[in-house]
Amino acid sequence: GDGYNDLFRPVPHKETGFAAISLEIYSRWGEKLHTSTGPNAQWDGNIKDSAAPSDIYVWVLNYEDCTGVAQKMHGQIALLR
Known about the structure:
With about 80 residues, the chain is mainly beta. The protein has one domain. The chain contains no helices and 6 strands. The strands form 2 sheets. A 4-stranded antiparallel β-sheet has the order 2-1-5-6, with no helix packed on it. Strands 3-4 form a two-stranded antiparallel sheet. A hairpin with a 2-residue loop joins strand 3 (about 45) and strand 4. The termini are close together.
């Protein structure tokens, strides 16, 4: 990549933070393509070490907030090559 937007990763609020992070990436048809866990959970736009094609992907973020309560967020990301 060119060093700009090469990684998709959650950025915690600086005051509350995250614990127990899991980031999952799915195709628009629901096929799980990538899972990353831990404080550096991220996606580099690759699927099994090959560049994923330009498309719309679904992301799901499971985490515990600073009080230990399980939370879930989801959305879409457009990958452009």
